[in-house]
C-alpha cells in the first residue's frame, strides 16, 4: 500500500527568508497611482473557470503567483496554464509560487490540459511552468507532450509556451522541442542584468539570451518572445540596453509590465512606471 508523503512548500516570508538579498519587510510600500486600478477577482466567469480547472487538476500561474490582474483575464475566459505542479525549485523574490521539492509529474496532465482547452473553446493558449531543476530535461518533454495532446485534440489552437531557462539542459531541451515546436517560444528575462542577484537569483542573463537565440536559430519561422518587469530599480538606459540585446539575439517580441508586490515579504516596488513611459518604450522598440 502506497503511503502519501506530505511535501513542504514554502510561500511568503518562509520562502524569501533564506535569500542572500532579502526583501526589506519594514519598508512602507509605495502608494499605487491613479492609473493602476485592480478589481478583486470575482464573478460567475471566474468561478466557472476555476471549477473547470480544478475538475481537471489544472492550475494557472495567475492564481499561484497571486496576479492582481487575474479577475480581468478570467472574466475574458483566458488563462495561462501552469504545468508540472505548484511547487517550484527556485525562490525568486518577486513571485509567490511556492518553493520546495516538487511532486512527480502527472502523466495525465497533458490529456487533461487538452480536454480543458477544448471545453473552453480557446483559440490561443499560453502554457508555462514552475522551474523543475529536479528533472533531467528540466521538464521539456512534458511541455512537448502537452503540445502533442493539444494539437491532436484541437489542431486549430495556437500554442505559446513560456518556459524556464532549462539551466544546464539547453541542448537537451532544444533537441526535444525540435520534434514539436510551439507557435510561439517565450522565455522571460524578467529584469536588467545588474538586478539579477536581487530579482532573479539562480538565473543568468546571458544564459537566458542564449536559450532564446539557440531556439530561433533552429526554428527561424517560429516567433520568439520575452518579457520584462519594470519598477524594480532599473533605469531607462538599462531597459534600452536589454531591447538591443534581445534584437541582437533575434527575439521577435517583447512584453513590458509593471511589477506589483505580492506581499510585504516579497521584492518591493521601487517605482510605478507611467503610461507615457510605457508608450516611450513602445515607440523606441518599434
From TrEMBL:
Annotated keywords: 4Fe-4S, Cytoplasm, Iron, Iron-sulfur, Metal-binding, S-adenosyl-L-methionine, Transferase
Top-tier EC class: transferase
Segments passing through the bilayer: none
Cofactor(s) required for function per UniProt: [4Fe-4S] cluster
Any one Gene Ontology molecular-function term assigned to this protein's record: metal ion binding
Catalytic activity entry: [[Fe-S] cluster scaffold protein carrying a second [4Fe-4S](2+) cluster] + N(6)-octanoyl-L-lysyl-[protein] + 2 oxidized [2Fe-2S]-[ferredoxin] + 2 S-adenosyl-L-methionine + 4 H(+) = [[Fe-S] cluster scaffold protein] + N(6)-[(R)-dihydrolipoyl]-L-lysyl-[protein] + 4 Fe(3+) + 2 hydrogen sulfide + 2 5'-deoxyadenosine + 2 L-methionine + 2 reduced [2Fe-2S]-[ferredoxin]
Pfam families, per database record: LIAS_N, Radical_SAM
Annotated ranges, domain Radical SAM core: 74-286
The protein's Enzyme Commission number: 2.8.1.8
Protein name per Swiss-Prot or TrEMBL: lipoyl synthase
Amino acid at each position: 500500500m502506497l503511503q502519501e508523503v506530505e511535501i513542504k512548500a514554502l510561500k511568503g516570508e518562509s520562502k524569501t527568508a533564506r535569500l542572500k538579498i532579502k526583501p526589506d519587510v519594514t519598508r512602507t510600500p509605495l502608494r499605487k497611482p491613479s492609473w493602476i486600478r485592480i478589481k478583486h477577482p470575482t464573478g460567475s466567469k471566474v468561478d466557472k473557470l476555476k471549477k473547470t480547472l480544478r475538475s481537471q487538476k489544472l492550475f494557472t500561474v495567475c492564481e499561484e503567483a497571486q496576479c492582481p490582474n487575474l479577475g480581468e483575464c478570467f472574466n475574458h475566459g483566458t488563462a495561462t496554464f501552469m504545468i508540472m505542479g505548484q511547487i517550484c525549485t527556485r525562490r525568486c523574490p518577486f513571485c509567490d509560487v511556492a518553493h520546495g521539492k516538487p511532486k512527480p509529474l502527472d502523466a495525465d496532465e497533458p490529456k487533461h490540459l487538452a480536454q480543458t482547452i477544448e471545453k473552453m473553446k480557446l483559440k490561443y493558449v499560453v502554457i508555462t511552468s514552475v522551474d523543475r531543476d529536479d528533472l533531467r530535461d528540466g521538464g521539456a518533454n512534458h511541455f512537448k507532450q502537452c503540445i502533442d495532446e493539444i494539437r491532436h485534440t484541437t489542431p486549430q489552437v495556437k500554442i505559446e509556451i513560456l518556459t524556464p531557462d532549462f539551466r544546464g539542459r539547453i541542448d537537451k531541451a532544444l533537441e526535444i522541442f525540435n520534434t514539436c515546436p510551439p507557435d510561439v517560444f517565450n522565455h522571460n528575462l524578467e529584469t536588467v542584468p545588474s538586478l539579477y542577484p536581487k530579482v532573479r537569483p539562480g538565473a543568468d542573463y546571458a544564459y537566458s539570451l542564449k536559450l532564446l537565440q539557440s531556439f530561433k536559430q533552429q526554428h527561424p519561422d517560429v516567433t520568439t518572445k520575452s518579457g520584462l518587469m519594470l519598477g524594480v530599480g532599473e533605469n531607462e538606459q538599462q531597459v534600452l540596453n536589454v531591447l538591443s540585446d534581445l534584437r541582437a539575439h533575434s527575439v521577435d517580441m517583447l512584453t513590458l509590465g509593471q511589477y506589483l508586490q505580492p506581499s510585504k515579504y516579497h521584492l518591493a516596488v521601487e517605482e510605478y512606471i507611467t503610461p507615457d513611459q510605457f508608450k516611450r518604450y513602445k515607440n523606441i522598440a518599434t
